[in-house]
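Entry: Glycerol-3-phosphate dehydrogenase, mitochondrial
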Amino acid sequence: MARLSRVEAVEQVNMAFQDELPSRQAQLTALRATQEFDVLVVGGGATGSGCALDAVTRDLKTALVERDDFSSGTSSRSTKLIHGGVRYLQKAIVKLDYEQYMMVKEALHERSNLLNIAPHLTALLPIMLPIYKWWQLPYYWAGIKIYDLVAGAQCLKSSYILTKTKALELFPMLKRDKLVGAIVYYDGQHNDARMNLAIALTAARYGAAIANYTEVVHLLKRVDPQMGKERVCGARCRDVITGQEFDVRAKCVINATGPFTDALRKMDDQKNPNICQPSAGVHIVIPGYYSPDNMGLLDPATSDGRVIFFLPWEKMTIAGTTDTPTEITPHPIPMEEDINFILTEVRNYLSPDVEVRRGDVLAAWSGIRPLVTNPNSKDTQSICRNHIVHISDSGLVTIAGGKWTTYRSMAEDTLDAAVKAHNLSAGPSKTVGLMLEGAKDWTPTMYIRLVQDYGLEVEVAQHLASSYGGRAYEVAKMAHVTGKRWPIVGKRLVSEFPYIESEVQYAIKEYACTAIDVIARRTRLGFLNVQAAEEALPRIVDIMGKQLTWSEQRKREELSAAKQFLYYEMGYKARSEQLTDTSEITLTPAEVGRYMKRFHKFDKENKGFITTVDVQRVLESINVYIDADTLHEILNEVDLNKNGQVEFNEFLQLMSAVKKGQVSANRLAILMKTAEQSLDQTEKPVSVDRSGGGV
């Protein structure tokens, strides 16, 4: 069915820009120069981009403006699942709620479509539901089977039951005590920010004028001569980067601003009541060894009744989410209590042998769900994420609520309502089966050609194929020669991730304007490992600066802004606060004695502190050479009072934090332990605490 629709869609819609996308400057010129658009969409998240694509493929003259970057809000901060919503189905059955049931049915149809139209960005993911009580087995089995049945012909794969032995074989980290068995069902998974970007870029290819970093200052209105009422007829916009303002006129304005829906509604009419009730969802990323490569985990009933997913993603493990009422902000910050809540719930399901440490949290973020308010609701968890389309007296069309998976059907409903309310000349939606950016020319084996034709590493080639699809060849062509025997091309931004320098250049073609756009949404480095992202930043800023002719001052500003983003929004602050100069030292006298002996191997003069010179001297004596800049970085991680040296008390605070699991894989701790062992080969090996790197 979807494939037939796809053929029809491709035949009916002409792509305006097959090869090169218009530059951001060209898009801004189009926004300024066009006398009147049929549709102006405000908001570049999944729903707004979906609305622009739906409109432009109906042959409507379409514009889209986004005040930040595409997918900079909630759309890049999801659980990365494309799903019908198992928990919504459970609510629908228990409460006999037909509306919830239809929402799940619609989402399952959209799940199938999304897997078809962006195969490079999506994948099937088996999710295990471990069972610890016998009576739960038939209960959950029936629920999951109904989930399969509701999907009907679009069921991805049939769910199945596992014995305890088989469940542990597939998910060895699972807690075995009292485990009865498990149920495995299938949902989809995607790279959410790049999916959002693919939707927006596809709209641009079909001729939509889209611009990020373009905010609405106020709505334009005119009096309708027939009705004698004021009608919205466009928006006064400002290019955030240059500060220039201009008018964009349109027959219809669509408000698709997610959590900021009410701000635009009040721009239309100050008396408009709030219709959005924001809820914060925090996620954390921990190392990939915490979960199998291709099996997720669902905790259907946490200690406070929420649902926690534990999923492999981009070779890491993502865990979340929370669901708490919040204030609306463009820069939500993950709170320590939410991070610890997720870690506690994860520990409940993993084997006691697997120590889940706070120090293993590599990144954390909070996304604001734009839930539609139900006046009778007592808490945000019980609010249904159905969407509503509302048309104000002045003609402003608002789309609110909904969920990531149903962005396309939400856009279709919105445009149907807009066409009817504004008497626009347009046919039905053509987006079912319409392939997104990169889907054309993608095959599951195309990465082999990238390796063979360009000399890329296999891991890098696989990453490019799954991120850019058929456009990966363009990224590969831009890659620089490494000067090594292998790989021939493709210099990595950081050694442990497959992101390469040419992706930064290509990101600019995809409308990246800042370093944050690159680390957060063109690549996903900021979401995967904040320290690795910080390490890559200077090179990213250099490449962007050269391409966009940034001044030295602008480069410094970009670097500072990106570090702030990592510090607050990606959990670096919460991570760094695990080790402070007020951290409590909880070491036994024997441990203090052991660490004093280790410290004095470096502090030969008994100064009470060590510097890079001391560390360099010891390392050279065992034939280990590390450059001065790297050594300075290593000591700076532990130098809590930032005086250029590490005092003995700071060292004890570090080792205490390592012991408690608050800090892991600390470079200085591992370096000093290794050096001590090399210096004192004759000593019996010391028993060590469980910690990062065994320090």
